[in-house]
Amino acid sequence: MSFVSGLILGLSLIIAIGAQNIWVLSQSMAGANRLVIALVCILCDASLIVIGVYSASELQEWIPEFVPWFTWAGIALLLYLAFGSALRAYNGSSAMHTTQTVTTDWRKTAFTALAISLLNPHVYLDTVLLLGGVGALQPNPTLFAIGACAGSIVWFVSLVSFSPKLKRLLSSTFRWRVFDTVISILLCIVALQLFTFT
């Protein structure tokens, strides 16, 4: 029962973290580092979930003090990524054939994935505090944490696995420009939501 609860709650919270999912999907379609993206996101989530489950009471005391710093850093990162998407949409530089990929150093991809995963204050409030608080009250906290981590694995593996099919739908310049425009708008909306959160 604890495993199922962790799986369901973990999936619902991870799916709701919009900026991370938007970035993962867009980068998975445009780049060749899908495995790196999935691994970094899964490891970040799993680490925060385990820390939250076993340190819920201590974290509830000091994490709120750091939330404003994470919020402003997250806003800056989201606006930077939104600007990049808007620039690609304006220049029409993202279009590619189905078999073509954009080569990016895996370390740069890993660093960006790490930043967008950890600079979102909702990650700490939802994944660490909420999941951790619920997990600490479970009959078997370890099974709850495993279930929540399994939810992260299922979601990110599905997201990066689905991206090649979506990429084929966006094989024209016009469609890619529309996609980049939508991504830029969504990232700006998330940044605005974070701003109202401060």
3D structure, described in words:
- It is a multi-pass membrane protein.
- It comes from Alteromonas pelagimontana.
- By secondary structure, the protein is mainly alpha-helical.
- It has one domain.
- The chain is built from eight helices and no strands.
- α1 (2-16) packs antiparallel against α6 (121-136), α2 (18-30) packs across α7 and α3 packs across α6.
- The termini are far apart.
Oligomer: single chain
Poorly predicted parts: 96-100
Q: Please state roughly what percent of the residues sit in beta strands, choosing from under 5%, 5-15%, 15-25%, 25-35%, 35-45% or over 45%.
A: under 5%
Could you tell me the number of beta strands? 0
Into how many domains do the coordinates divide? 1
Largest sheet, if any?
none
Can you tell me the overall shape? globular
Q: For the terminal residues, how far apart are their CA atoms?
A: 36 Å
Keywords: Cell membrane, Membrane, Transmembrane, Transmembrane helix
Main location: membrane
Protein name: LysE family transporter
Membrane topology: Multi-pass membrane protein
